[in-house]
Design goal:
The complex is a heterotrimer of chains A (303), B (379) and C (351). Chain A is mostly helical. Helices cover 75% and strands 1% of the residues of chain A. Chain A has one domain: ABC transporter involved in vitamin B12 uptake, BtuC (Orthogonal Bundle). In chain A, strands 1-2 form a two-stranded antiparallel sheet. In chain A, helix 1 packs parallel to helix 5 and helix 3 crosses helix 8. Chain A is globular and about 65 Å long. Chain B is 42% helix and 20% strand. In chain B, helix 3 packs parallel to helix 4. Chain B has eleven helices and 15 strands. Chain C has 351 residues and is an all-alpha fold. Helix content of chain C is 68%, strand content 0%. Classes of the chains: A mainly alpha (303), B alpha/beta (379), C mainly alpha (351). Chains A and B meet through helix 1, helix 10 and helix 11 of A and strand 7, helix 7 and helix 8 of B.
Chain lengths: 303, 379, 351
């Protein structure tokens, strides 16, 4: 394998991870765009979806249906979880407290879901059956291609939804000015609930592609995944739908290239073991230099 | 029949815990403590290990206990959650409740802390499973039932030679005590055995999920074998399938952390052909003691948690019994004295403890054949 | 009312209170009621108190969430452990005059705390340009970076220093688990922090918390005060780390300082009350002792904490103690007078 082929291969490897980040970041950015809250529990919605798949995929196989159909069950479970989290915890806290209390609630919710899953399903990792059996496309794994395609479809659908439907317009209004929206007769709470349902439902699709790629479910899987997806969303410009997609892919590629080349470049001083640190450094640099992200403009349209 | 035996064992276990205190006058029990990660991310390890201990203690007490009829009483199976502070609390608690010896803990990180405490207080600490070299370094009264990592790394390198390869690659978790310890050991052994290390790749922790980038580099380096000291929960779903997808067709060699991979494999078991690992015992060993253990364990606790850790926990309890018998008393200092240099025959081999308290024993190499763990060779 | 005389009186009362507390511990100890188990939990409560009170400076008084406090603790722990190790080796090699372990420990604490403060400065200057959730996530990022760097330092693993090995747990650290020394260090730290929040610095940062723009328009250098508080907080996290490193296990793992550890301290601060030192101390002790007392159920600890946290956020967003402060002096002088507790806008955060 010559240098260039290897380089291209490493970029493809980056897409493999990045496409999953992108899919998760889409849901992240959606929720942040409306209520300006880092939903720490979003990564754990992925975990919830993955457990849903773990339990429903064998049922689908037993019924002789394609295993990916269980994604609909996962969407249902995730959307319900999302709405419940919003209704039972976020909404009452938001009504009373401030940004800080909301953020603490989100952290608490993440801890709650992780520990609840451990209590219910144990700490033992669970293996999910093969979901897709796809051929490689030009040397890229079928799963990755499908993840990117799904990501683009979701991205376009979301953009259109937000732009052209009534609810979508309401979402944009709420994100601009909650109080004014209320005065304009927009049902703010309902809009936020729908946002959560959609964002969490997207998490289920991300779960499907994650599980198809990595086969294993644990109660802690969402924690780091969610953080990286958040970094992706910030990098692309938080609240901007195409930005999340772009950010996810960029983070994946940066992660892959840094793992592949940082050790020889720095003479072994920094190794591939630093990749998480590098991702967080990107976050720090972006936040300090261009907090609006790659696609963000001060007057840019926010979800 | 099976059910009756397991009921019987369960009954004995219940009786020993319930009745023993009331019969204190007749035969005062020998109190010991057990520590392991019973909750948290490592709960599986703790479960297997303590199950092994439970099985052995029940058997020992059924056979009349120690020192002429005194039963062994486990004060408690304490939880350390894989955290050194929690482990220290469990240790201090057991000591204050009168434990004469402590079996634990499971991970090297927690055990290293307990070893310092045991050394300072003259307590006997017998870890079934902590393989890090440093655990028994410069402390007295600390023993283990398993071999150490440097030995394991050495055997792994010999497996590579045995398989006839010359170009090897290493993939390890640089932030993990276990993985990085094995990496150093393998590297040193490879140098003396004339193996060429063509690529060294690392991940920050054993919790990573994507190793494709590192594996692509390894494939590009032309390695014929990858030494991957990880645990079964990364080997099964991530590392082996991702390596095969990246085009790696050579061998894999791993260490005892691989044990249990058969439960975490993806659907295509043929991917795992050509995977070897060093273990503490071979479940398909036809010897009576191993098969007896496998049968009894499966009856009592089921097959899912039956790993090498369970075998080591089982052996650790028997080692302690032998030492108490040899000392002729349950006095901690005397038992420590007796345990140094003791010879022992158990599920995980026949061995003598060296002056550091570590067994000198052989490591069976296990091979995966279409998803089934098969004994390969003693190397 | 807060004239010189009253202040001296207050100080005296506090000192007497401290004396009584130490005496109580001494009596318990000499009666043989403290075994190693109790001592261990005592020490854990001590470093938890320092961690929680120092984090409270940032969360309660500065009104910002920092999710990387365990990172500073790690810096303090590793620096102090390596310093005492180096001193021990130097004494052994007779390149240095022998000094008492106590003095070694104090040098270790000081070095650890200063190193942590330095990192506080490095992190604080860029991070405090941001606010709210961005600050939270950036401190989380810094905390993880610190941890990853430590795990890759060859001299901070294995036997450490020259014979060290990256990735391994650091072993062979000096043991310093004298409960009186640790108790004294803890009290001094908490005392300094209380003095800090009651000083003009404390009033300044609370003013910034309540209204950033208004404070800066009155001529307060808000950045200076913010960074100062952050550095101060990191300094004490370093002290806590040093105690942690020498607590008697002789070993340190970088995985003791993950973002989950930071979150645990955040939980303690929030439950205790953002802006209440009393609350921070009570929460630190309670949440260190309770899991041990309920060992059988401690598997569900985090589940219970998270639910409690959500409930507190819903019904008492400022934490259980709010901004209430226990005062021995007040208790003694206003025995029968009902203390008037003004409704304070503590821990308001930014909007």
């Amino acid at each position: 394998m010559d240098g260039l082929t290897l380089f291209i291969q490493q970029i493809i490897n980056g897409l493999r991870v990045g496409s999953v980040y992108a899919l998760i970041a889409l849901g992240y950015t959606m929720v942040y765009g409306i209520i300006r809250l880092i939903n720490f529990a979003h990564g754990d919605f992925i975990m919830v979806g993955a457990y849903a798949l773990f339990f429903t995929v064998p049922v689908m196989i037993a019924a002789g249906m394609p295993p990916w159909l269980s994604v609909f069950a996962a969407i249902l479970v995730c959307a319900t979880t999302g709405v419940l989290v919003e209704k039972l915890a976020y909404s009452p806290v938001r009504a009373k407290g401030n940004k800080m209390t909301a953020l603490i609630t989100a952290i608490a919710m993440a801890l709650f879901l992780e520990n609840l899953a451990q209590t219910l399903f144990g700490a033992n990792p669970k293996q999910v059956k093969t979901i897709f059996d796809l051929p490689q496309v030009f040397g890229v794994s079928g799963n990755t291609v499908l993840t990117i395609i799904l990501g683009v479809v979701v991205m376009i659908a979301l953009s259109l939804y937000v732009k052209y439907t009534k609810t979508g317009q309401a979402m944009r209004a709420v994100s601009e000015d909650k109080d004014a929206s209320l005065l304009m007769g927009i049902n703010v709470n309902r809009t936020i609930t729908i946002t959560f349902a959609i964002g969490s439902g997207l998490a289920a699709i991300a779960s499907l592609m994650y599980v198809a790629q990595y086969n294993q479910v644990t109660n802690m899987m969402g924690s780091m995944l969610g953080l990286k997806a958040f970094v992706a969303a910030v990098l692309g410009g938080i609240g901007i739908i195409p930005g999340a997609m772009l950010g996810g892919l960029v983070i994946g590629i940066v992660e892959s290239l840094s793992k592949a080349y940082i050790a020889p470049l720095t003479g072994g001083l920094i190794t591939s073991a630093f990749s998480d640190a590098i991702v967080f450094s990107i976050l720090i640099v972006v936040l300090l230099v261009k907090p609006a992200g790659i696609l963000g403009k001060n007057t840019g349209e926010k979800v | 029949m099976k059910r009756k035996v397991s009921l019987l064992i369960a009954l004995v276990m219940v009786l020993t815990t319930l009745l023993v205190p009331t019969m204190a006058n007749a035969a005062e029990p020998v109190k010991i403590g057990v520590i392991g990660p019973l909750s948290g991310n490592l709960a599986t390890y703790g479960e297997s290990t303590t199950n092994g201990v439970k099985l052995a203690i029940a058997e020992i007490n059924e056979a009349g206990g120690v020192l002429g009829g005194r039963p062994i009483e486990v004060i408690a199976y304490e939880d350390d959650k894989g955290d050194s502070t929690e482990g220290a609390n469990a240790f201090n608690k057991l000591v204050s409740e009168g434990a004469k010896a402590i079996i634990g803990s499971v991970t090297s990180g927690v055990t290293a802390g307990l070893a310092t405490l045991a050394d300072a207080e003259g307590m006997l600490l017998l870890t079934p499973t902590a393989t890090a070299d440093t655990v028994t370094d410069g402390v007295t009264g600390v023993f283990r039932a398993c071999f150490r990592d440097s030995f394991q790394g050495d055997v792994a390198a010999k497996v590579a030679v045995n398989l006839g390869v010359t170009k090897v690659a290493i993939l390890y978790a640089s932030g993990d005590t276990y993985s990085s310890g094995l990496y150093e050991a393998f590297k040193a052994a490879a140098a003396t055995l004339g193996l060429e290390i063509v690529a060294t790749e690392s991940s920050s922790s054993t919790a990573d999920t994507d190793y494709t980038t590192q594996l692509t580099n390894i494939v590009a380096s032309g390695a014929e074998l990858i030494f991957a000291p990880y645990y079964y929960d990364s080997i099964g779903p991530y590392i082996v399938p991702q390596a095969r997808e990246a085009g790696f067709t050579g061998f894999f060699v791993g260490a005892d952390g691989w044990d249990g991979t058969q439960n975490t494999m993806t659907d295509d078991k043929s991917l795992y052909n050509g995977c070897f690992y060093t273990n503490h015992y071979a479940p398909d060993d036809p010897s009576e003691i191993v098969q007896g253990f496998v049968a009894k364990y499966t009856e009592t606790f089921g097959a899912e948690s039956l790993t090498a850790l369970a075998a080591l926990g089982y052996d650790a309890a028997y080692m302690l019994r032998d030492a108490i018998e040899a000392a002729g008393t349950d006095d901690t200092a005397a038992v420590i004295e007796a345990l140094y240099g003791i010879s022992f025959a158990g599920v995980t081999g026949t061995f003598t403890l060296d002056e550091s308290g570590t067994p000198q024993k052989a490591a069976p190499v296990i091979e995966y054949v279409d998803g089934v763990a098969k004994f390969y060779a003693y190397i | 009312m807060d004239n010189q005389k009253v202040r001296t009186k207050k100080l005296l009362v506090s000192l007497v209170g401290v004396g009584v507390l130490m005496l109580a511990v001494f009596i318990f100890d000499s009666l043989g009621m403290m075994d190693n188990y109790i001592r261990g939990i005592f020490i854990q409560s001590c470093f938890a108190i320092i961690m929680v009170t120092s984090l409270n400076l940032v969360m309660g008084y500065l009104g910002q969430i920092a999710l990387g406090h365990a990172g500073f603790m790690a810096v303090g722990a590793y620096t102090s452990a390596l310093v005492t190790k180096a001193i021990g080796l130097a004494i052994k090699a007779e390149t240095m005059a022998p000094i008492s372990p106590m003095l070694q420990f104090f040098i270790g604490i000081l070095c650890g705390a200063l190193a942590a403060a330095l990192f506080g400065l490095i992190v604080g200057i860029p991070a405090l340009r941001l606010r709210g959730d961005y600050l939270a996530i950036i401190t989380l990022g810094f905390g993880e970076i610190i941890r990853v760097v430590i795990q890759n330092l060859p001299f901070a693993g294995g036997k450490g220093l020259a014979s060290g090995q990256a990735g391994q747990a650091l072993i062979g650290i000096m043991r310093m688990n004298d409960i009186y020394v640790i108790m004294l260090v803890t009290m001094v730290c908490v005392g300094i922090m209380i003095a800090f929040v009651r000083s003009k610095f404390g009033r300044a940062i609370m003013a910034i918390r309540d209204d950033d723009i208004a404070s800066s328009s009155t001529g307060l250098n808000t950045t200076y005060y913010k960074v100062l508080t952050f550095v101060f907080s990191a300094f004490f996290a370093g002290v806590a780390g040093a105690i942690y490193a020498h607590r008697g296990l002789g070993t340190l793992q970088h995985s003791d300082f993950t973002f989950l550890k930071s979150t645990e301290y955040v939980i303690m601060v929030v439950l205790g009350g953002m802006g209440s030192m009393t609350g921070a101390v009570v929460a630190a002790i309670t949440l260190s002792v309770l899991p041990e007392a309920l060992r059988a159920f401690s598997e569900y600890r985090m589940l219970v904490y998270s639910v409690m946290l959500i409930l507190v956020m819903m019904f008492r967003p400022t934490g259980l103690f709010g901004s209430y402060e226990f005062s021995l002096y007040q208790l003694l002088t206003k025995r029968r007078k009902k203390a008037v507790e003004p409704e304070q806008t503590a821990a308001k955060g930014d909007n």
